[in-house]
Write a structure and sequence with these properties.
This protein is an alpha+beta fold. It contains seven helices and ten strands. The longest helix has 12 residues. The structure holds 2-oxoglutaric acid. 2-oxoglutaric acid (AKG) binds next to strand 3, strand 5 and strand 10.
């Protein structure tokens, strides 16, 4: 079980989660204070257009598929794709990336040969690789408070979808290209969903059933970021071939925004 679950549920018992996910108006500039006050500290999901973060110095922008292809032109003699997906590979070559983009642009399904997936998927990427794409880290937390960026290529084939699960850290998921549908459920559903947790340590990844009347379904489009507080369950479907970069806060209790927000209140401390 996720070690901070009981504390999170205690906060939600006092301040119940809202069963919708708002979208910030692209004409509004979101301040760090407003983000913390309305979303991170109460533990509420929100969709934020990249443009609403310009005044915080966030330069990430949408990169449509056609532009992605011209950023990474395909070369004739590129080596075969060898991404170790669902793993933590730091090997990242532009030539291989170009091949993966070419396949993604044709919406080819993910290969499951040898239990590996051929696309960059749940793959750690060095910041230098993201610079070419113009991706900045979300402006809400310090570098040391977040894990390295993770890259997800998603064709629309069913085996590229992700089952309902929860992660132990806060999540900022930036849709660079294409679109995904997120079906999300609050941590208050934990016991009803009967999750199977992978480990009892701080990793805290839990897979769960999907059937609940309290599911919120949102589409995250290219040029938008979904903020999903720690412990929220989510199933993810690519509704257009997509490239997403996400950042998790490191998964210790004091990095979970909601617990940080209430840490001054004695009655939540134990
Ligand atoms: O995009 C996906 O398939 C899964 C993403 C995900 O689970 C996450 O960002 O936590």
């Amino acid at each position: 079980m996720w070690p901070v679950l009981e504390q999170v549920l205690k906060v939600y018992a006092r301040f119940p989660p809202k069963l919708y996910c708002p979208r910030v108006n692209p004409k509004v500039q979101l301040s760090l204070e407003a983000f913390n006050k309305y979303f991170r500290w109460p533990g509420r999901p929100v969709i934020i257009p990249f443009s609403s973060l310009a005044s915080l110095g966030f330069g990430t922008r949408a990169v449509p598929m056609s532009e992605l292809k011209s950023l990474y032109p395909l070369s004739e003699d590129a080596p075969p794709i060898a991404f170790v997906a669902n793993g933590m590979s730091l090997n990242f070559s532009s030539a291989q990336f170009a091949q993966a983009i070419d396949s993604l642009s044709k919406d080819l399904p993910v290969s499951r040969e040898q239990n590996l997936r051929n696309y960059p998927r749940n793959m750690l990427v060095p910041d230098t690789a993201l610079k070419h794409l113009g991706v900045d880290a979300p402006p809400f937390l310090r570098r040391g408070d977040m894990k390295p960026a993770t890259l997800w290529f998603g064709p629309t084939a069913a085996n590229a979808n992700t089952e309902m699960h929860s992660d132990p850290g806060d999540n900022w998921a930036c849709m660079i290209t294409g679109a995904k549908q997120f079906s999300i459920l609050a941590p208050t559903e934990y016991y009803a969903l009967r999750p199977r947790c992978q480990s009892a340590d701080l990793d805290g990844l839990c897979y769960a059933r999907e059937d609940s009347n309290n599911k919120i379904t949102v589409t995250v489009n290219e040029g938008e970021m979904l903020y999903l507080p720690a412990g929220w369950f989510h199933a993810v479907h690519n509704i257009r071939p997509s490239v997403m970069v996400n950042y998790w806060s490191v998964s210790v209790a004091e990095q979970v925004g909601m617990l940080r927000g209430v840490s001054g209140l004695a009655h939540f401390a134990n």
